[in-house]
Amino acid sequence: MAKALIVYASLTGTTKGIAELLAEELRDLKVEVLVEECTEVYPKEFIENDICVMATYTYGSDGSLPEEAEDFFYELEEVNLKGKVFGVLGSGDLIYEKFCPSVNDFDKQFEKTNAIRGTENLKINLDPDEADKQKIKQFAKNLVNAYSKNK
Predict the structure, then answer these.
(1) Residue pair 89/139 in contact by the 8 Å Cβ criterion
(2) Tell me, what's the pLDDT at 60?
């Protein structure tokens, strides 16, 4: 059985909810899933998992990384995740000029780890609606398919 670790940063609970929705979808696909807050784990814990996911929000109008996720972000590039599958998703607000740049930032960090991108980044405006929930379901399927191809 594939193992996944979903790490999240959430200020209002929205991104935590997105991480939990993804966890449900992965469990439906017979993946063993652990969901952890970014200050409670280290990036090296991804090594013990087959599928590595970061769920993040973007802070403020300048598109900053969440402050509580900064250490995790910078430590991530030091971890070798060769053979692991990764995905990044998160929430943002379309009122800002920059929409969810933290998702892209984490994607670039994962690229430095030699992990395999399992799916395209998923950006959600505020709370996920029904269409977003379908995108999360597809995100999960894409991760599992990528894992199956690369194991």
Answers:
(1) yes
(2) 82
Q: Is 145 helix (H, G, I), strand (E, B) or coil?
A: helix
Is 0.70 topped by the overall pTM?
Answer: yes
Structure-token pair, residue 10: 């959430």
Question: Residues in the chain, how many?
Answer: 151
Pair of tokens at residue 69: 């996720």
140, 145, 148, 151: CA torsion to nearest 10: -80
Cα 17 from Cα 144, distance rounded (Å): 20
Of the candidates 85, 87, 65, the residue with the CA atom closest to the CA atom of residue 135: 87
Q: Profile the chain (151 residues) by mean pLDDT over runs of 10 residues.
A: 97 96 98 98 98 95 92 97 98 92 97 98 97 98 96 78
**CB contact set of 6 (below 8 Å; sequence gap of 6+):** 19, 22, 23, 26, 33, 34, 35, 36, 53, 54, 55
Task: Record the tokens describing residue 95, joined without a space.
Answer: 């009122």
Q: For residue 150, what pLDDT is reported?
A: 86
β-bridge mates for residue 3, sequence order: 32
Domains of the chain (ranges; CATH) run 3-150 (3.40.50.360)
